[in-house]
Design goal:
single chain; about 375 residues; alpha+beta; six-stranded mixed beta sheet; about 15% strand
Amino acid sequence: MGRTMRGFARVLQAVTALVFSAGLATAHEVTPAIADLRVEEGQIALDIRLNLEAMVAGIDLDGLRDTDTSGRSADYDELRGLSEAELRPMAATFAEDWLQELSIIAGDRVALEVTEIMIPDPGDTTLPRQSIFLLNGTVPAQAGHLVLHWPAGSGSVVLRQHGVEGAYAGYLQGGETSPPIPLAGGGALQPTEAFMAYVPIGFAHILPKGWDHILFVLGLFFLSPKLRPLLLQVTTFTVAHTATLALGTLGIVTVSPSIVEPLIAASIVYVGIENIFARHLHTSRTLVVFGFGLLHGLGFAAVLGEVGLPDGQFLASLLGFNVGVELGQLAIIALAFLTVGLRYRGSLKYRGRVAIPASVTIAAIGGYWFVERVFL
């Protein structure tokens, strides 16, 4: 009995560490900034939508999944509750220093100034507040290209050019510099470039950011240690979420996140609870996984809608994002297999020591998220 309990505890500890390593909360998830670039009659306009409070708090957003893991999360939470009038002086001070690091080079460095800072009212403080910096500058007359340097510590940014044919669109991490962007257009990514640029975006949405999707995939994994039922479930899930990802991105199917997000949490609860009672994969489980895959695809589409797709490369970018999502899911399965599956493969103790404690944990977290997303 003692050995059994110790084994149970070890597995529960491993699974709990796996699903809790980024924390329960998802409300403070870090999302990319969006920078829209336009050059007309020698004037450059750069509109940047960002999480102002996180930056004012001094949080290093590079590689960060959730602001709760930062040592400055308390300062960040306090700033989120400030009114527009209270936050504006801090925003102006931050912008003055931040613009020393943000640079646009078009032959010479373009002198940028903040013409307006748009700060929404606090609203729901459990959700990130997206403020907008409007920047302007003069481009030298002889310039044909420009490059933008995104400051280190600012997290990732989606950079989008507007007003020209073949507009550039790219994804930069903190501290990175864009390739030369032709002012007259023609800098759009080629299909292969667009595909490769969006693979890491899709992967990052799963690892390390997509903890609700991670838990769902783990729920599929813990039903059975055998390969065939796992592959059938994952394939069904992939086909379903690929369909709604495409339809949602095209705008053919739209469902409010206030509906989709609680249902995604409910899907986690379902697979966790069913794992406790079901020993084998059956047809109804496959159909349910397909239905929940449709929901998760709408969640992916919402994320991709925030990032945006480059003009003329919708299919290549969409495929790249989806491949990134699939690679993230495969990484989850591989991690789960190496953590617990390899040790208990073929063991009669798998259900008691692995599947049931893991599934209880998954269902409990999904239930917490459901309550949070519906009632809190």
